[in-house]
Amino acid sequence: MKQKKLARRVGRIVPFYVMDLLARAKELESSGRSVIHMEVGEPDFVTAQPIIDAGKQALDAGHTGYTPASGIPELRKVIARHYEDRFGIELDPRRVIVTPGSSGALQLIIGVLVDPGEEVLMADPGYPCNKNFVEVFSGVPVPLAVGPETGYQLTADLLERSWSPETSAVLVASPSNPTGTLLSRLEMEKIYELVKSKGGILIVDEIYQELVYSGDSYTALDIGDDIFVINSFSKYFGMTGWRLGWLVAPEPYIDNIDCLAQNIFLSCSAPAQYAALQAFSPSCHQIMEERRLAFRERRDFLLPALTEIGFDIAVKPEGAFYLYANCSKLTDDSFKFCYDLLEAEGVAITPGKDFGSNKPEQHIRFAYTTSIEKMKEAVKRLKRFIG
Ligand SMILES: Cc1ncc(COP(=O)(O)O)c(C=O)c1O
Q1: Are both 29 and 89 inside the same structural domain?
Q2: Strand, helix or coil at 228?
Q3: How many of the other CB atoms lie within 10 Å of CB of 307?
Q4: Among 37, 120, 125, 272, which is disulfide-ready with 242 (CB 3.0 to 4.6 Å)?
């Protein structure tokens, strides 16, 4: 049957190309082939046991219903205390809004801030859903090409040059997906001042904030209390499937965000919220820190191994679990390279096309979300493939 009607915005929302690649990888695996997965941005560790136990207890205790739209007060308090313990920032728990992943946080923020036709500036390459969230609310995503010279991050200068009368907000991520690079505190401050001087809003995605391996660790909340900050239990806390994140909103927006959350989500999963109360406990902290160090070790293995076989990684990533490699010495079509590699050698990696339109054919993202043993084998296969 033909569709009778489709909103124009849907035509502007592109799928993840890596999902097709993942589907093909699964097909190969079910036919008995060995596939090494370095394509998906998800930790290979399961959720830490104390969190799982707390989730089970929550179910047994009957926490199976709706919760307040902005989250259970206990969790909002625990998250606020985390900012105090970690960064010395006193935060009113009312400013913490618990969301279905940071994806939910991004939707709420764009929903309360962006009117139809208003522009949101963001980095290209960047996290692919960001432009789509803006599209969903009939805003205009404006991807700005960034490269190794600025650590693949936006700068105040670039934003100044790109600002238009329609610009309403800027979205940055530090560390970034797909590059793993950081925005220095100094540049973040300059960006904040620039955005403020233009009357715009700064949104900072800190979903990989606790997965930083060296250098500057700060939160944008320390720079301005009118910045919107996003975070999640998905990555550092290894809870992707529980669908839980949060945002910290400037005080004047709390009620509007709560109202939108009531309407769009009603509430987040109750057992997930009770489980997450454990995420900041000392026993979990120890587990997460061991995992963070394991990720760093993996990065330190993979980065030189890829460079040695012809990939160019111009900026050492200091966070997240990604390497964004220039592959132009090996191919002029990263998309075909990834597909051919998967067919020939069973190594799954993500072509640059998923992250924007800034030289995607020259780039590939490697996610080091698998063991060093498996990555050693992947590098061996890559070498054979390249010849
Ligand atoms: C930069 C960035 N922001 C947001 C998300 C959304 O994650 P979640 O909704 O699981 O918190 C991701 C997921 O990969 C990401 O890489």
Answers
A1: no
A2: strand
A3: 13
A4: 272
Omega of the bond leading into 175 within 30 degrees of 0 (cis): yes
What whole-number percentage of the chain has pLDDT above 90? 94
337 and 256: one domain? Answer: no
Answer yes or no: is the C-beta of 41 below 6 A from any ligand 1 atom.
yes
Q: Which of 236, 263, 280 is the last residue of a domain?
A: 280
* pLDDT per position as a tens digit, 278-326: 999 999 999 999 999 999 999 999 999 999 999 999 999 999 999 999 9
Q: Whose C-alpha lies nearest to ligand 1, atom 16?
A: 177
Same domain, 241 and 376: no
Distance 209 CA to ligand 1 centre (A): 12
How many domains are there within the chain? Answer: 2
Is residue 149 in a domain? Answer: yes
Q: Are residues 329 and 345 in the same domain?
A: yes
232 CA closest ligand 1 atom index: 11
Residue 52 lies in a domain: no
Cβ of residue 43 lying under 6 Å from some atom of ligand 1:
no
350 CB less than 6 Å from ligand 1?
no
Cβ of 234 below 6 Å from ligand 1: yes
Domain hosting residue 368, numbered range: 8-46+283-386
| Ligand 1 touching residue 205 (CB < 6 A) | yes
Q: What is the pLDDT of residues 20-68, one digit of tens each?
A: 899 999 999 999 999 999 998 999 999 999 999 999 999 999 999 999 9
Phi, psi of 117 (to 5 degrees): 90, -10
- Residue-wise pLDDT tens digits, 184-199: 999 999 999 999 999 9
Phi, psi angles (nearest 5°) of residue 251 = -45, -45
Q: Ligand 1 mean position to 103 CA, how many Å?
A: 6
Distances (CA, A) of 94 to 107, 141, 192, 311: 19, 29, 23, 47
Query: Does ligand 1 lie within 6 Å of residue 177's CB atom?
Result: yes
Q: Is 200 in the same domain as 84? A: yes
- Residue 57 counted as domain residue: no
Q: Is the CB of 102 under 6 A from ligand 1?
A: yes
Cα–Cα distance, 188 to 204 (Å, whole number): 9
